[in-house]
Amino acid sequence: MFKALFTEEDQCDMILNDPSNLADTGIEIIAKPKGKRPAAITQLSGGEKH
To answer: Whose CA is closest to 42, among 29, 32, 33, 26?
Structure first.
């Protein structure tokens, strides 16, 4: 999904919130659009998300 929303020059990581509990862990997506600081995808502005 990230590749559909961002360019090829942008990067992202998926981090498990609780790696010791894989059945119930959540994930956090950390996005780094080119020229910006890494941020959780929920912290990006509407324009950066779309």
So the answer is: 29
| Through-space distance between the first and last CA atoms of the chain, rounded to whole angstroms | 11
User: What SS3 class is residue 42?
Assistant: helix
Q: Which residues pair with 30 in a beta bridge?
A: 13, 40
Which parts of the chain have pLDDT scores under 50? 48-50
Distance CA 47, CA 50 (A): 5
Check the CA dihedral 28-6-12-19 and report its sign. Answer: positive
Claim: this prediction has a pTM higher than 0.90? no
